[in-house]
User: Which sequence fits this backbone?
């Protein structure tokens, strides 16, 4: 019986199988297993440093405005440098790029550790070291995202690799902040920075153990300026990627900076200390981990698109509710909901973009993803710090949540146009079967 041309074969129809034996299939690739092992250790240290930096700034200054300022200083280099970094990622050996970024990040953490443990650290040094880390991230994030497809030989396993990577990030988000809270309460922030610096050794070793040729890519004859223009033209004209990036630019500007205000909530709203901050961030990590694991068991990217606006709405509602809460148990529960919505949308969008983008533009496209996800955050952090100084942290987070819900509604209104542009790519990749009417027309035309 012939299928209707619109019958249940659009890019949004999820697979129906409930067999979960495929859930960890990306780990059958040796290079991805190495990356997974090294990053699992390193990311715990990274999250410890994030919490320790926020608490250090708040301890030194007691200022929500300076919390936002330090976050701005650490993220603005990504906004400025990421497009150029994306071009270089498409031209250079991606494995070597990541080895360099990890080594430099290790030096940054060790410098923070030395200054803090010797008790000579001041806010100016934190600012400049944050700027240095932001410059490293401008190259590391698009490099890491573009390298993902090279570690997984079977592109059909790419979505699973991205979901597993998100699970790894969020397991570290769960462990790292809790551990940081305990370490800070027992000693000081410097030991968190030292643990982070040492943890980078694991990921550097994992990269060195991969075959030397894995990061090699086809060299481009075009100039860097021409490649920069080509990347922008692709991102700005291809509707699915443009709309996804615009939504995440909004979420990054208005929603994500709530994290920089967590020390204020822990100390002033919930009347706790560094352990309270650790619990809040751990709850956020639990929600994000649940989200990531729910995506690991998926067999296909089909059905992910509609999750993006739904997740953005959950994220926004979680923020608005968190802003109202003054009870620790309720705030922890709302952080779990917020973390789920944040990670669900982030991972779904990353998976769709990585699936759609052609390999020769991957580094550049992922650099714009980095700008949308991280590059807009410095402006959001500065905005959040300014608003929190003027109207208080709770009201600031409520306004942020309302903006996220509005963004979700706008994205939903664009779904039809996005699906229309995605279908030909998904058909070409074999993710969905071609429309029968198209096949009939081809048979007629080829006679």
Assistant:
């Amino acid at each position: 019986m012939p299928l209707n041309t619109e019958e249940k074969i659009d890019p949004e129809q999820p697979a129906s199988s409930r067999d979960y034996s495929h859930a960890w299939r990306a780990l059958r690739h040796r290079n991805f297993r190495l990356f997974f092992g090294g990053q699992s250790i390193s990311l715990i240290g990274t999250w410890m440093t994030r919490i320790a930096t926020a608490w250090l700034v708040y301890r030194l200054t007691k200022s929500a405005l300076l919390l936002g300022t330090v976050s701005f200083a650490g993220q603005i280099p990504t906004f400025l440098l990421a497009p150029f970094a994306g071009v270089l990622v498409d031209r250079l050996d991606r494995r070597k790029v990541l080895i360099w970024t990890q080594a430099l990040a290790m030096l940054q953490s060790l410098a923070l550790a030395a200054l803090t443990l010797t008790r000579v650290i001041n806010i100016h040094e934190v600012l400049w070291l944050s700027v240095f880390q932001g410059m490293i991230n401008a190259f590391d994030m698009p490099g890491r995202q573009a390298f993902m497809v090279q570690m997984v030989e079977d592109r059909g396993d790419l979505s699973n690799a991205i979901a597993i990577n998100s699970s790894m990030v969020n397991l570290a988000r769960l462990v790292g902040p809790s551990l940081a809270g305990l370490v800070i309460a027992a000693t000081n922030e410097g030991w968190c920075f030292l643990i982070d610096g040492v943890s980078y050794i694991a990921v550097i070793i994992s990269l060195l153990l991969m075959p030397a040729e894995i990061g090699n890519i086809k060299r481009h004859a075009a100039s860097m300026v021409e490649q920069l223009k080509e990347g922008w033209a692709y991102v700005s004209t291809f509707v699915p990627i443009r709309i996804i990036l615009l939504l995440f630019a909004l979420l990054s500007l208005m929603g994500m900076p709530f994290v920089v205000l967590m020390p204020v909530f822990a100390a002033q709203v919930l009347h706790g200390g560094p352990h309270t901050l650790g619990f809040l961030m751990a709850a956020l990590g639990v929600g994000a981990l649940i989200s990531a694991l729910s995506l690991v068991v998926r067999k296909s990217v089909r059905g992910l698109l509609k999750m993006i606006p739904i997740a953005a709405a959950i994220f926004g509602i979680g923020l608005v509710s968190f802003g109202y809460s003054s009870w620790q148990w309720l705030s922890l529960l709302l952080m779990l909901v917020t973390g789920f919505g944040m990670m669900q949308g982030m991972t779904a969008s990353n998976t769709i973009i990585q699936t759609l983008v052609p390999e020769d533009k991957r580094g550049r496209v992922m650099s714009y993803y980095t700008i949308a996800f991280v590059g807009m955050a410095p402006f959001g952090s500065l905005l959040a710090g300014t608003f929190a100084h003027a109207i208080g942290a709770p009201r600031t987070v409520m306004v942020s949540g309302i903006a996220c819900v509005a963004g979700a509604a706008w994205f939903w209104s664009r779904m039809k146009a996005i699906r229309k542009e995605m279908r030909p790519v998904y058909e070409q990749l074999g993710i969905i079967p071609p429309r029968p009417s198209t096949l009939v027309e081809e048979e007629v035309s080829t006679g």
